[in-house]
Amino acid sequence: MTMADVQPIVDLVDVSRTYVAGSIEVPALRASTLRIDRGEYVSIVGPSGSGKSTLLNILGLLDRPSSGTYRLAGTDVGTLTEGERTHLRGSTIGFVFQAFHLLPHRTVRENVQLSMLYSDVRRSERMDRAGEALARVGLSHRVEFKPVQLSGGERQRVAIARAIVSQPRLLLCDEPTGNLDSATSATILDLFDDLRRDGLTLVVITHDEDVSGHAERRVAIVDGALSEGAA
Amino acid sequence: MSRPKMAATDLGSEALAGLVGRPGRTVLTVLGTVLGIGALVATLGVAQTAGNQIVGAFDELAATSVVVSNQQGFFGDNVRVIIPADAEDRLTRLNGVNAAGSIGPVNIGERLLKSVPIDDPLGQTEFQINVQAATAGVLDAVRGRLVAGRWFDQGHSDRADAVAILGPGAAQKLNIFRVDQQPVVFIGEDAFVVMGLLADVERQPDLLNSVIIPDGTAREMYGYESADTVQIDVAVGAAELIATQAAIAINPDDPETLRVQKPPEPASLRRQVEGDVNSLFLVLGGVSLLVGAIGIANVTLVSVLERVGEIGLRRAVGAGRRHIAYQFLMESTAMGLIGGILGASLGVLVVVAVSASRTWTPVLDPLVPLVAPLLGAVTGLLAGVYPSLRAASLEPVEALRAGV
What we know:
The complex is a heterodimer of chains A (about 230) and B (about 400).
Chain A: H1 3-6, E1 10-21, E2 24-36, E3 41-45, H2 52-59, E4 67-72, E5 75-76, H3 82-92, E6 93-96, H4 108-117, H5 123-136, H6 152-164, E7 170-174, H7 182-197, E8 201-206, H8 209-214, E9 217-222, E10 225-228
Parallel strand pairs in A: 3-8, 3-9, 6-7, 7-8
Antiparallel strand pairs in A: 1-2, 1-4, 4-5, 9-10
Helix pairs in contact in A: 4-5, 4-6, 5-6, 6-7
Chain B: H1 8-20, H2 23-60, E1 65-69, H3 87-92, E2 97-105, E3 113-114, E4 130-134, H4 138-141, E5 145-149, H5 154-159, E6 163-166, H6 168-174, E7 184-187, E8 190-200, E9 210-214, H7 215-222, E10 229-234, H8 239-250, E11 259-261, H9 266-306, H10 308-316, H11 321-358, H12 367-393, H13 396-401
Parallel strand pairs in B: 4-9, 6-8
Antiparallel strand pairs in B: 1-10, 1-11, 2-4, 2-10, 3-7, 5-8, 6-9, 7-8
Helix pairs in contact in B: 1-11, 2-9, 2-11, 2-12, 9-11, 9-12, 11-12
């Protein structure tokens, strides 16, 4: 085993995030330590306003912690420049959002290719890999469709294809079933199980018990504080 | 850590997809630039076409005409220089002069003109008509044509023969339409034999309503002192030269006292016409281009605000700030370029249409339709700077919250 394999994907040590609005300081995430190993399937549960999104933004390099260190796949992201963080985000992390975030005027294939647009992937290879990713989520018959022509479940599967096509080491999902009915949610969760079996590291943020039940490990967050196991 | 590279073609196709995705908006946005560039191209083209056309028309007649007159000042009432009786001979000796002739009004006092020596109480038989003295060369110098008879020669003038030529206006009044029976007109009590009838002149149209007599006759009978105008018909291209020589030939002592009218130089005339047309419409074109630029800036800014979620998503999948800035910059530049191409085409069509309606030859500098689209692109580029910077400065977290 190489160093990269034994290092945790996510290693948060005493990470906190405080928002400053004028003279008022609002602690959104208290000093938290969290380690997620390669291949883990972790759910982060908590009521709204508990700091779930803040944690996700920090994990996804969309936001910088106020204090503490964050190592992503062995790299201390606190030392990186804005450009390096952007590149690391694009190459290491895949995002799945509650609202899908698909570009309405572009085809399914173009939406999936978007993840590879800002890295050194040739056009022909982008086409092939987008096709493979769409086959992986069972949407080979929808490649030239526009998002408006798809159902909610299909849209989220396009978003998942977009997230996995760049071969990320960490898949961050923010309420992935929040806009879907329970039957459709089940297909998405089955897909996550498949991805988990393929060795992908998943972090799913949710307030839905069914969703967190699929994960092998539960992290609860209440008032900006993390606790292992309990809901 | 190396920065991700992104091919320009990928940026281009992303920008293009952004435009094609909203065709209606793109068309309306581009319209301002189309009108601005179109107005500029059409202005330049029509100005060039008209400039060439006017020069062509002037070449025909005016460029071969030089007129020397002894009128001083606006009212011509100051002391006059005498134009010598042999001015015609002096001028025709100059190389480049085709014909020359002196003309001047004859003071006939209170005399009226009539063609019959009877006073008819029932009709008007006497008229007040200008009498002009002319030399033998005048007919050619004004490029006149006769309906009947002939122009007088130097002999008539030398002998002070009582002969006259009638302009068509005068002939109408005096009711004389043929000369084969040697009709006579009376200036007061003096009888003049009508030896020719003018049909038309191309210069000095005063002659058309006058009775014209030889200058020697006028001198002898009415104390005529001097012509006031010398009309010179010059060879094409000789006008500038003759204009400088004519005054010296006529009055070598003090040529400055004579006024010389020469045709404007073709090159300066064209520049003048183009300048007149250009300066007005170029301002209009510039204003519409500015309006077009503001339109593009406005729509690009709205587009940035509308696509905040898209920007957030792109940032999430690894797009740097510069990628976002480039994309919106390219979208606005592409809109400007499209507007420029359409505008240049429209402008060329306008030039052709205007030329066709006037049966002119369309003239357009080939650089104009080539540079115009670039001007449009630059307009779009400048218009996109601010919205692009706004787009690039968005924080990904904030942007993602907006949704797509």
